[in-house]
Amino acid sequence: MTYLQLESLHRSFGSVKALSGIDIALGEGEFLSLLGPSGCGKTTALRLVAGFDRPDRGRIVVDGKDITGVAPNKRDMGMVFQAYSLFPNMTARQNVEFGLRIRGRDKGARRGRVDELLELVGLGHAGDRYPHQLSGGMQQRVALARALAIEPRVLLLDEPLSALDAKVRVQLREEIRRIQLELGITTLYVTHDQEEALAISDHVAVMYGGVIEQMGTPSEMYTAPKTPFVAEFIGTMNRLEAQVVDGASGEVEHAGIRLRIDAARGRQNGDRVLILIRPEALELHAAGNGANGDANTLSAEVVTQTFLGPVTRLKMTGGLIADMSTARATALPVGANVVAHVPADGVQLLTLTDDLPDIGEGT
Prior knowledge:
By secondary structure, the chain is of the alpha+beta class. The chain folds into two domains: 2-231, Rossmann fold, CATH 3.40.50.300; 236-351, CATH 2.40.50.100. It is built from nine helices and 20 strands. It has helices at 42-50, 92-102, 107-120, 136-149, 166-183, 194-200, 218-223, 228-233, 326-329, and strands at 2-13, 16-27, 31-35, 57-62, 65-66, 77-80, 154-158, 186-191, 203-208, 211-216, 238-246, 251-254, 257-260, 272-277, 283-286, 297-308, 311-316, 321-325, 337-341, 348-351. The strands form four sheets. A six-stranded mixed beta sheet has the order 6-7-8-3-9-10, sandwiched between helices. A hairpin with a 4-residue loop joins strand 17 and strand 18 (321-325). The protein is elongated.
């Protein structure tokens, strides 16, 4: 059943439309990430749920109750910010205890709850330290414990890991997910990091220009993007502009070369389409090894190699990008002539429009 519902939320700031009618339905205990570039509206949506701002139109419903006009301090929301926002003159224990104290909980109950939460976030040994005595990751753990102390109905996190270094980000995002699953708390998480969103979420909503482009499971977002923007933003994607030349057999033409694409079957001849291929789905061979002239192949030259550990990314002429094992990539150095095989199945096909977003290679 739906526990958190955002119904047709609109919010404008002067002539700028921050949100243009977003709808979200989230079940109890589920984890949803709002993912998108800066200015897409994701933080505005989070602030509306928290009560720090009011929508121009639309409703926010939690557990069947309309809370759109309810004051922030009466919404029972736990909030974790990017900048920790701990009280510098209070110890970790006192920071976690703060929300319970102002709610009038008795001292014994407060102490037990704080001890439990500090252990939960792995800081049972650091309760008497002040924020300046803690690392950034530890401070964010304290902030998370403080948000959870009041037993909120919904946990809201606004780019909570962006100020941390890469290794700590990975460790802490795993801890956030573990704690969220252990407590079964409904969570709304804002991030611009697609890897982070895919790693810890039950559902991901990709936002662009104040609207939700697509919402689904991490697997659905990666393997079946429904718009060019989602295809680009979730991971890296090869985009091949083409035209359908034989819709009956699924043949398209790209740069004067005919390719057979299963998803093109049933399309009208003359349709302009966008072939979307993940780098790991593009198979490379050295030119002259017998692959030349085979169906569904494109000729190219390796321009750069980027070492990524067990995988190496090859960029080629024509804008092609392929990921392959580092061991195999040594046989295709910079300057090598290659043949790239385009699979007939396992690729996405979208209708080509004149206003495709250009955001590089995703993040």
